[in-house]
From TrEMBL, chains A, B, C, D:
Any one Gene Ontology molecular-function term assigned to this protein's record: metal ion binding
Cross-referenced NCBIfam families: PRK06557.1 (NF005123)
EC category: isomerase
Pfam families registered for this protein in UniProt: Aldolase_II (PF00596)
Domain of life (superkingdom): Bacteria
Its EC number(s): 5.1.3.4
GO BP annotation list: pentose catabolic process
Protein name, UniProt field: L-ribulose-5-phosphate 4-epimerase
Catalytic activity: L-ribulose 5-phosphate = D-xylulose 5-phosphate
Any single Gene Ontology cellular-component annotation: cytosol
Similarity comment: family membership: Belongs to the aldolase class II family. AraD/FucA subfamily.
SMART domains according to UniProt: Aldolase_II
Cofactor(s) essential for the protein: Zn(2+)
Length: 229, 229, 229, 229
């Protein structure tokens, strides 16, 4: 498929996936954004592009044509609107993590609440072991406007099985092999943040042994689903 | 009705009931599954089959044709997709509890939160006495992949009036005379888990005397509804 | 209008108002019921009738024709299905409180949570002063099957400005001049139960002086809305 | 555009924006109201008008024609129904804050819960720094019926970057350059009130340094969105 065709297809995917964010209650108003890498050449590399939502546009207005295309420096290469103010963070992740094909950012309530306390979500649910392989980690506090958010995401996720990081006082960023996988991780991180929060409200949770976490994670990553995850 | 016709009818019922899970907020993404027994012969027995959802398929894709059919060892006998990864647990329940005609599994938030603490939901609501006849019990921690989840469900429910068990660190499994009754139990267990959780957040709940629980349960099981429950 | 016409009109009103209960999140599955008095003669009296939902029927099936008509002893006088299992309580209220034209019962979550602790909802919101004129009171624990629920409702509401009572370990019953007003009270009691619960989770609420509560209540009952409330 | 045309256009805007309140879960039944200033002359002044919802009308009935027009004393100048009972407060704000073009009032749950404790929402989220530039302040307790609510709003907002004030024991009022901006502030104040509430339920939140709050606020107010906010 030509890069032009791939960009068109990716605009449709990214526009459609934005609708999943309000559907699952992850965003209000215009907060939150989804992007997906467009590989230019035979494998992921520095010449890749990505498609992302423009800034300050409501979810009712999100069409494929409204999406914008950026290079891996975060510079707009196609589109009539300014890209999302989180574009630099997405670009940094694509530059430094070639296996990542999709990135999602939300301020989903329970995940952001753990981020406001700077506390990782402990792995006390079998579905967390399946999906995250352990705790959901906390990233550093970082101001918007340079590479510090992107760097915080990459440094935190490099040492973790988790496809989600909770940036301190800010909210979750999630990654995946494509934007669909990153959206799934955004849905699941809010779900486990909410369930563990509620469990902890009335007392201590029962830990899961590390060996059991490892066993659940290995099985789920290998056999779940219909060939694709 | 022939077994073939019964399987077709059951595929429709099971597909339709899966839509109840997101409708009542019990599942996100592809989590959760519903199954119903197909009696082969004059009464429930080891040659029965059951219809269940395939693995890793979203709720928007759930048609009667997509459902799969398994025998009571959990082996796929009809269908083009892999059965749910929880199939072995459903099969174990049907093998060991002949009066059970439907099984449901979810990770509904409040029920799963009690499961993460390993704490039964105490019977402090008249609607719990009606529907559950007492506390909602906790089942053991069990890894997926062999009979341990099914065995934990059966051993816990055998000694209880409750049609719901909260598997530790995992989530609720519910049973009923058919899949509709098991879905109702899945909806109700989340509702009572949520209400009692909220009650307990601000202090102690008032217990209901055992004799009153028994009286409410006996009345409800005998006279409620329009002949069928 | 003839009693027959009035009954037909009331069947439509009561069927339509049942849809408000799931719309506002007050009920799950088949729980909850709405009724409205049909005055027989020139003013409310012992020969009146009321229209109520049948027992154990889902909210998707609630048509005017499905509604049933009872006399003030709770005996079915028109309809093909058994009346709601809460019919005796509704009948008792209509028999003893002639100014009440509508009754609603739900197990809405936050109101039921206060009921499970046996704790009145304190009047710490101006909208509570407006609508309830003070605290929302707790009624006694009562078993279903005789007059004890109805008697508990009437004895509690007689001494209160509140159109809502939280029956202990059970849930809210609300009353009004008609079923619409009782449904509004059911919506509002859940809203204030929820808001005050959340306020109390993080500390003490600020009381409102009794004179201010009285002033807000008097104003609201006299001047709010477009002539009708 | 003539004042008559401007009024017609504003009726449409205000009617449409009321639908945002239930959409985002900010109101139940008939609570909550939105208004927008109509500038009469070359700049905002004492001869301006504003469009607001009538009193006690459900959200399903809100058409442009149902909206009412008042002058800045809160006197009805066009419309067939009584204006909202909160009209005096809206009028006071427009009289005293000429840069305010829109006002919204709700009883949204989490914002009202902070108001019931009389406790400001601390700025511990980057999105709060962006949108509110600091804590969300508490206004005084005030009875309805004279200028005391309006005066409380104006005195509190004059000394704050926040477009939202939580009136004690009552609920949030928000302002903006137009009604759309005030509705956005109403949605965001509930979101941050909810997220910080949930964060605080399990422990202390991490503060954000004042310099970082200032930096985030300055950036967001200057560069976010597509020219308009």
């Amino acid at each position: 498929m030509s890069t032009t065709d791939e960009i068109e297809r990716t605009r449709e995917v990214v526009a459609r996936l934005h609708a999943e964010l309000p559907r699952w209650g992850l965003v209000v108003w215009t907060a939150g954004n989804v992007s997906q890498r467009v590989v230019v050449g035979s494998e992921p590399g520095p010449d890749d592009l990505f498609v992302i939502k423009p800034s300050g546009v409501t979810y009712d207005e999100l069409t494929p044509e409204a999406m914008v295309v950026c290079d891996l420096d975060g510079t707009l290469v196609d589109g009539t609107r300014a890209p999302s103010s989180d574009t630099a963070a997405h670009a940094y992740v694509y530059r430094h993590l070639p296996h990542v094909g999709g990135v999602v950012h939300t301020h989903s309530t329970y995940a952001t609440a753990w981020a406001a306390r700077g506390e990782p979500v402990p792995c006390v649910l079998t579905m967390m072991a399946d999906e995250f392989g352990g705790d959901v980690p906390i990233g550093p506090f970082a101001l918007i406007g340079d590479d510090s958010i992107g760097r915080g995401i990459v440094e935190t996720l490099r040492d973790s099985r988790s496809p989600a990081v909770l940036m301190r006082n800010h909210g979750p960023f999630t990654v995946g092999k494509d934007a669909t996988a990153a959206v799934k991780a955004a849905v699941m991180v809010e779900e486990v943040a909410r369930t563990v929060h509620i469990a902890r409200q009335l007392g201590d949770t029962v830990p899961i042994a590390q060996a059991d976490i490892d066993s659940l994670y290995a099985r789920y990553q290998n056999v779940y689903g219909q060939d694709t995850k």
